[in-house]
TrEMBL record:
<keyword id="KW-0560">Oxidoreductase</keyword>
<dbReference type="GO" id="GO:0071949">
    <property type="term" value="F:FAD binding"/>
</dbReference>
<dbReference type="InterPro" id="IPR036318">
    <property type="entry name" value="FAD-bd_PCMH-like_sf"/>
</dbReference>
<dbReference type="InterPro" id="IPR051312">
    <property type="entry name" value="Diverse_Substr_Oxidored"/>
</dbReference>
<dbReference type="Pfam" id="PF00941">
    <property type="entry name" value="FAD_binding_5"/>
</dbReference>
<dbReference type="InterPro" id="IPR005107">
    <property type="entry name" value="CO_DH_flav_C"/>
</dbReference>
<dbReference type="Pfam" id="PF03450">
    <property type="entry name" value="CO_deh_flav_C"/>
</dbReference>
<protein>
    <submittedName>
        <fullName>Carbon-monoxide dehydrogenase medium subunit</fullName>
    </submittedName>
</protein>
<dbReference type="InterPro" id="IPR036683">
    <property type="entry name" value="CO_DH_flav_C_dom_sf"/>
</dbReference>
<dbReference type="InterPro" id="IPR016167">
    <property type="entry name" value="FAD-bd_PCMH_sub1"/>
</dbReference>
<feature type="domain" description="FAD-binding PCMH-type">
    <location>
        <begin position="1"/>
        <end position="220"/>
    </location>
</feature>
<dbReference type="InterPro" id="IPR002346">
    <property type="entry name" value="Mopterin_DH_FAD-bd"/>
</dbReference>
<dbReference type="InterPro" id="IPR016169">
    <property type="entry name" value="FAD-bd_PCMH_sub2"/>
</dbReference>
<dbReference type="InterPro" id="IPR016166">
    <property type="entry name" value="FAD-bd_PCMH"/>
</dbReference>
<dbReference type="GO" id="GO:0016491">
    <property type="term" value="F:oxidoreductase activity"/>
</dbReference>
Length: 326
């Protein structure tokens, strides 16, 4: 680990002032400290924002939800408004990391975490995300856990967050505050595709701070759930996951929100699956037909061709589970 300076702040103006001077924000530190220890990240100045008053979880007009950026994952997962109103979020959080990490990690930090690609974390390997122009060792290396959707010639690393998959399905908004004031960014715009610049992962400007995450109101009744498929039962990142949200009224699916994780360079919104569901009556045959659209556009690599079929089966299973639980 390289030398760095450290400042703790207790109010938002002080945090923004430190950010303007080039400070790097840290809260729970469950990701950044690891990256610093591995010398993947070398910030010169850390700004501890853990004491900022950004932990509230509250309902918004119409039945939406606002999650403070510094709310701990464990606290958010068990909060009554989250657990009863949006089970898909609660389940995604509870299937993330370990209980110890969930007690420390913040929601904002979870969205800002970086890929678990082994080549990214190995400073001796070629990685465009870590060193632009260096190449991507995963393309010709062992790429079983890498992405099949949203990839480019510069990067095939998967996005690691379970929470982000649920928030993507729910069309959440990330609220930012920085030198130019406050601004909302849709989560689909906040998490960036690699393209030719995989080093840019988030649409956050220098000195900006995530203050909250807002889930919009959705029509009720609303059934939702999160399924995570992984190599081992706990403390493992997804090979594939599915967040499903369904609004069924009078026996017809009026709204459907579906997103996948573990298979994309960002959480992947499954618009074709959604379109196939809306206006139809829930039925086993419908889940099968809709799920067939899940892997559209997939570009498997040498070792992860199985992910296309796994994605189809994962989506089908979760559609069935949520559709029958409504």
């Amino acid at each position: 680990m390289f030398p760095f300076s450290y400042t703790a702040v207790t109010d938002v103006p002080a945090a923004l002032a430190a950010g303007r001077r080039g400070g790097r924000y840290i809260a729970g530190g469950t990701t950044l400290v690891d990256l610093m220890r591995e010398t993947v990240e070398r910030p010169e100045h850390l700004v501890d924002i853990d004491a900022l008053p950004l932990r509230d979880i509250s309902a918004t007009a119409g039945g939406g939800l606002r999650l403070g950026a510094l709310a701990r994952m464990a606290d958010a997962a068990r909060h009554p408004l989250v657990r009863t109103g949006f089970p898909v979020v609660s389940q995604a959080l509870e299937l993330s990391a370990s209980p110890q990490l969930r007690n420390m990690a913040s929601l904002g930090g979870n969205l800002m975490q970086r890929t678990r690609c082994t080549y990214f974390r190995d400073v001796s390997a070629a990685c465009n995300k870590r060193r632009p122009g260096a190449g991507c060792a995963a393309l010709d290396g062992y790429n079983r856990t890498h992405a099949i959707l949203g990839t480019s010639d510069a990067c095939v690393a998967t996005h690691p967050s379970d929470l982000a998959v649920a928030l993507t399905a729910l069309d959440a908004t990330v609220h930012l505050l920085g030198p130019d004031g406050a601004r909302p960014v849709a989560i689909g715009d906040f998490l960036l595709l690699p393209g030719g610049t995989p080093q840019h992962e988030h649409a956050i400007r220098p000195g900006e701070l995530i203050t909250s995450i807002e889930i919009p109101a959705h029509p009720r009744p609303l059934a939702s759930g999160y399924l995570k498929v992984r190599d081992r039962r706990s403390y493992e990142f997804a090979l594939c996951s599915a967040a499903v949200v369904l609004h069924v009224r009078d026996g017809v699916i009026r709204a459907a929100k579906v997103a996948a994780g573990g298979v994309g360079t960002v959480p992947w919104k499954l618009h074709a699956v959604e379109r196939h569901l809306v206006g139809r009556r829930p039925a086993p045959e419908l889940w099968i037909r809709a799920a067939q659209h899940a892997a559209a556009g997939a570009r498997p690599l040498r070792h992860n061709g199985f992910k296309a079929e796994l994605l189809t089966r994962t989506v089908e299973r979760q559609l069935r589970v949520v559709g029958e639980d409504r």
